[in-house]
Q: What sequence folds into this?
């Protein structure tokens, strides 16, 4: 059902802003807002999301996960990450999820997700799942740390419309699982595909570097990292930074 209704925009500030603006019109669940070009694409932590017009996918999905307990909201990140992960795996044979919801090929980022929820009282009323996925772009600004696209990996151009439809289908599959309460499967698949899981690497927290090994996530979605002492500590988003490989 995701993608049955697609709103095509030529240029917009951000598809997430546009999607949030039409929530009041009770637009149907699974509607997708797709932009050829965003002039104020947003990423995490007040970052901007840069994407060359017409080269990539920049879109937002409108969901009403009224069934979901807000305490389990990390499951939305897992569902969207797994849907994109499965799409990428269908095109290349390697992809991983960098906690909390970046999509990686090798040590490079191919896509990101910006989820904006609205919770009324103790229930979800809506969720806008914004997705930026690099498809045909082959040159990126210098300030983007480690970008990659499907074209850079495979050497060929991809049809954006076809990619969008496939993504809508892989994301729908995981959204159905979420609706049916298959949290254990979401957790298992998410954890199995985590970038750097089980590998010793460098991290930074409160200005201090340390060696650690990702073991998984806890029930609220915090990242679990084992330190050399054997102690496993949980980290919230912003509390830990991945130090890139040398
Ligand atoms: C990140 O990795 O920082 C998240 C990036 C999310 C970008 C997408 S592009 C479509 C949607 N509209 C936005 O303004 N942001 C998201």
A:
């Amino acid at each position: 059902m995701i993608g049955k209704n697609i709103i095509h925009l030529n240029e917009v500030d951000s598809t997430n802003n546009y999607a949030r603006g039409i929530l009041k019109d009770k637009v149907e669940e699974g509607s997708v807002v797709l932009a050829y070009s965003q002039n104020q694409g947003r990423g995490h932590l007040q970052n901007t999301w840069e994407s060359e017009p017409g080269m990539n996918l920049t879109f937002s999905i409108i969901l009403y996960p009224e069934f979901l307990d807000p305490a389990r909201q990390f499951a939305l990140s897992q569902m969207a990450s797994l849907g994109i992960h499965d799409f990428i795996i269908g095109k290349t044979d390697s992809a991983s999820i960098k906690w909390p919801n970046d999509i990686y090929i090798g040590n490079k980022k191919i896509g990101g997700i910006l989820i904006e929820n609205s919770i009324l009282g103790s229930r979800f009323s809506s969720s806008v799942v914004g997705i930026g996925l690099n498809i045909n772009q082959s040159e990126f600004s210098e300030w983007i740390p480690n970008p990659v696209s499907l074209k850079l990996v495979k050497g060929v151009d991809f049809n954006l419309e076809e990619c969008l439809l496939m993504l809508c289908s892989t994301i729908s599959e995981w959204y159905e699982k979420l609706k049916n309460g298959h949290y254990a499967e979401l957790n298992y698949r998410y954890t199995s595909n985590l970038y750097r899981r089980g590998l010793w690497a460098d991290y930074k927290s409160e200005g201090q570097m340390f060696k650690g090994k990702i073991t998984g996530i806890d029930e609220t979605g915090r990242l679990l990292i084992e330190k050399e002492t054997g102690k496993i500590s949980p980290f919230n988003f912003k509390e830990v930074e991945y130090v890139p490989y040398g």
Q: What stands out?
A: The longest helix spans residues 160-179. Residues 14-16, 38, 41-44, 47, 49, 58-60, 102, 112-114, 130-132 surround biotin (CB under 6 Å).
